[in-house]
Each structure stands twice: as structure tokens, then as C-alpha cells.
Amino acid sequence: MPNVRPVFMGPRLRRLRRDLGLTQANMATDLDISASYVALLERNQRPLTADMLLRLARTYKIDMSDLAGDSAAEYTGRLQTVLKDPMFSDIDLPPLETEDVATSYPGVTEALLRLYSAYKEEQLALADRGAESRGGADRGADAPDPVAEARRFLAARRNSFPGLDNAAERLAQTVSGRAGVIGHLRARHHLGVRRLPSEVMVGSTRRLDRHRDEILLDDSLDAASQTFQLALQLIYLEMSDEIDAVLREGSFATQSGERLTRRALASYAAAALIMPYSAFARAVEARRYDVEALARQFGASFEQTAHRLTTLQKPGQERVPFFFIRVDPAGNVSKRLDGAGFPFARHGGACPLWSIHNVFRTPRQIVTQWLELPDGQRFFSIARTVTAGGGAYGAQRVERAIALGCAAEHAGQLIYTQDQPDFSAVAATPIGVTCRLCHRTNCTARSAPLIGRQVLPDDYRRASAPFGFSDS
């Protein structure tokens, strides 16, 4: 007969009792057991039997999955991910011990996870301040940067928020039973949807009109953008509490930084509503991460789908970790997300040898490229242009380029590398993080001297590279 591991749920039982406003004596009376036995259960000195689970469910009219659900598995996965950090490499941390901590002490586990996230944010903030001082930023080093605050918050959590994914997936199931988002908005919130010309919207793409109980959309938006804006409005209506709970884990120096982060989390949840985690995770494997095919399957845009691919790191259901960057023709970075360990420059643009800067010559065509950093790390990336705006004659269009990439060891899972035996990491393009930190001194594309190296005079010799450097 197989060994059945006893189930200990003391902290969750204690939380349930407190949520119900009961003392141990009250609960003991309700369950027809002694108060001392309730105390033993809450201290994990006795296992919670199947009979006791049934009593709890019948007595307090709760779903057993609410008490004995998969939150322990999620906590275990998150804790194991954190404990893979190199700072813990010299500590023996058996998986069974990690699971015991996450299962038996969810409060302690949550505290450790929050502490680690705060540590990562401070690490990134220190890197930002160091980059500013080395680069000689014009503004004061102590001046808060709202965009950097938002980026640090997302980067410290690898742009993965399982709680939002779970809530959005439940909402997606409800929405699908009501003929989609529009039907759900009408049934649940008594809101209609109306599309109006751009001149009537006066600079807005979406507006909630409480006076007429309507959501107004700019009729120049394409189908994917309209779907996303409706999903985003629904998220603000139904998932604000979940978003605010995630937001409380961060520390913000500016109100703008907090608002930008809240907007990013709402967009994350809207994408999770359109592309629910479980269904999307299955689809990416079936389609071998074909961004265009996935976009059509879920009615999303190329950029929305690429963005969603960076979020697939739910503990226990991880897929290929990706990084994402978006730039304009001038090289300005307007979005940067990392789930693959790519060392983005904290300030300034990306390497000009990266294909993301060249795809403006071939609009809407996917360009693949192997990349090799100075330290030998190799990545595979795809780049393509995307268009925002337009939708009518004379309407302003904004062309940007996006790149989506992963570490070399995962590239074989992508459709973009199949049937190309000669296309491998051996032919990687040598790039740098940014010119001031790149040690490839002979690069002819260099735009700035390397920090820490003296530039040689060119009185008698001019190197083929823009700058010649001394050996020390």
C-alpha cells in the first residue's frame, strides 16, 4: 500500500478561523472536537484528516479547494525559484524542506518572497545610480525617475505575477460564458460599447462614460487594439483590488512611478484575460512560439503576443524565458522587459549591430539573429517593426521596432530555428550591452569611448575603429 503523506494545514486553518471571527473554543464547538485539538491542528502538531476537511466544508459552507487548494504548490514553486539565486548556492536546500516551509508556513514564505523582491529592487536601483554617476547624468543623481521605478518593480519580479494570471484566468472563464467581453460588460456592469470618430474622442482611445453607461472607443483602432482596450477597462472594473495588492509589495519614491507601475500591471492582467495562462502556455508549445500564429489564434497584435511571451514563468508551468525591447527609429527605448537574464543597459541605447535597429528597412518582416555578448553569453532574437496609430487617411502613425529573445539553450524550441542546420550560435553577431561598457575595442560601430580606458592620440596613427585605447 503506497505511503500517504499526512497533510498539515495549521496556518491556513488559523487564517480561516480568524477570517470567520471565531475563537478556538467556538470552532471546537462547531466541529464537535476539543479546543486543545484545534490548537494542535493550528500548530501543525496534528495532521488535518479527510474527515476533518469534510466537517469544515459542511460546517462553514466552504469549498475544500479553498482550504486545501494549490496555493502551497504555487508558494513552493516561487520559493524554489528564489532559492536558485547564486547568493544561496553554498547552502544545502533540499526540495522537500522548501516544500515543507511553503506548505506549513505560508505567512513566513510570503514574507521571504517580499523581502527578496525588495532586495532585487534595491539592487537594480543601485545599478541605476551607478550608471548615472558614471555617465555624468545632467540631472541630479538623487532625482527620482518614475520610468526607472516602474522598470525596477517589473524586473525584480521577472515580469511574472501568478496571482494576476490566476485571477484573469478565472475572469476569462466567466467572460467566455457571456459571449465575450462586450456581453460580460453589458450583463455584469450594464455598460454598452460605442465607437466614435477620433475628432469626437478628442485625443482619447478609450473613455468610460458613466453618465451614459457606455465605454467609448476610437473607431480608428484596429480589432486587436479595441479588444485590448475593452479588456483593460474590464480589468480596472473587476481586478483593481488584485492589482493594488501587488502594488503594495513595492516602494515608490514618486506618485508617477506608482501610477506607471499600476498601468503596467493592468496591461499585464488585460493580456492575461485575452491570452489566459493555461491555454496560452499550451498553444506556445503547439505552435513552437510562432508569434504571428499565436497572435491570430488569440485575436491579439504581434506586439501584444510578444509581450505576453515574456510573462510565462508561473511556478510549475514555466515556458521559455524571453526578454523584450521596443525602440523607435532614433534608438530611444520605450519598453524593456526581461525574463531571460539579458543584461540590458541601464541607460542609453542598445548595440547598433543588433538587428532591431535595421528592421526599419524591411517593415513587418521578421529578422532572426544570434547574439554573443563580450562575456561569451549567447542569445537568439527575432526583430520586427510594429505600427501604432493610423487607422485613417492623414492620421499619425508611429513606427517602432521590437525584439524578442531567449538564451541560446532554449532557441531549439522556437520555430524560427527549425530546418536551418547552418543557422546556429556559432555564427553569432558580437554585440555589447552599450558602447561605454563594451570591451570590444576594435568595433567600428562604437559611438562612445569605453569607461576606464584612456583614448590614444591620433597624431601619428589613426585606427580603423573610431577610438584607439591604451592598454591600461
UniProtKB/TrEMBL annotation:
Q: What is this protein called?
A: Transcriptional regulator, XRE family
* GO MF annotation terms: DNA binding; DNA-binding transcription factor activity
* InterPro entries per record: Cro/C1-type_HTH, HTH_RamB, IrrE_HExxH, Lambda_DNA-bd_dom_sf, ScfR_C, TransReg_Diox_bact_type
Instruction: Give the UniProt entry's GO cellular component terms.
Output: cytosol
Question: What family does the entry list?
Answer: Belongs to the short-chain fatty acyl-CoA assimilation regulator (ScfR) family.
Which Pfam family is one of those matched by this entry? Answer: HTH_3
Q: Which residues form the HTH cro/C1-type domain?
A: 13-67
**Quick check: keyword DNA-binding in the entry?**
yes
Q: Which UniProt keywords apply?
A: DNA-binding, Transcription, Transcription regulation
* Recorded superkingdom: Bacteria
